[in-house]
Fold General transcription factor IIH subunit 3.
Amino acid sequence: MAEDTFRRLLVVVCDLSPIWWGKQAANASENSDKMQPINAFLNNVLVFCNAHLMMKHTNELAIVCATSSKSQFIYPCPEDVSDANGEESYGNMDGKYEHFATMNNVVVDKVKNIIEEESADDVNLPENSATLLAGALSMTLCYIRQAERNCPVGQSMKARILVLKGSQDVSTQYMATMNCIFAAQKNNVTIDSCLLMSDSGFLQQASDITGGVYFKITKMESLLQYLLWMFLPDPNTRESLVMPGAVQIDYRAACFCHRTLVDIGFVCSVCLSIYCQLLPRCHTCQTRFKLPSAAMTRPKKKKKEKTAD
């Protein structure tokens, strides 16, 4: 079958911002919840990843975690080069498929290490620290490109990205994030966005430009249901499903001078850099602009009065 010539790669980008998840843990303790939000989130993500691998034997998976200080792959592990699936570090477990059990154990251990490292550095982080989304997307696109090159002869790779994000956007990452979005569009990589209780203007544009799905979850208890319903089917299968309607997209851009989102700005006619105020020279390409000058009005000549001879 023609469908057997495709290998479907799903890369999941998880937001592990210590500040955001710390706030969720504080709210859970006030509500006397038995399970920590990060544990429930991780369990739901692992079930979703296992479901993706079960859909077809040629399906592939990668998981990237982004924090306020770094972005790194947690599956497959870079150090497990000798074994492509990292299966030599973990044995088989009763009642579980060996590949799933290995993947679950690797992800849980890696996330635990990341949280411990970030918790130790949490005291030095400012309150408005942003998740390094652009760095995670850059790593993901590089991994997808490498996977396409290593694809077996006679097969082709269909890759997509799922971003699970809860922290707020920061305008300083606008340019780097938009570069990743346009790179994904050029390489036909779909970016799906699952927002946890808050919207993201960056990911709204990412999903709209690349043809992905954008959805905000208002209750964490329903995360798994939405993951299996909306983000498990591939883009071709979604055409036969009734998906949620389109959301109003925030297309505001960040100015290159102060990195703030602007509704109305000034655009360089040479390099298309955006500024929030009119400047005599572009900071990016050094083009000089002709500033509008006030119109000079010439004084009217007084008419000479005719004198009678």
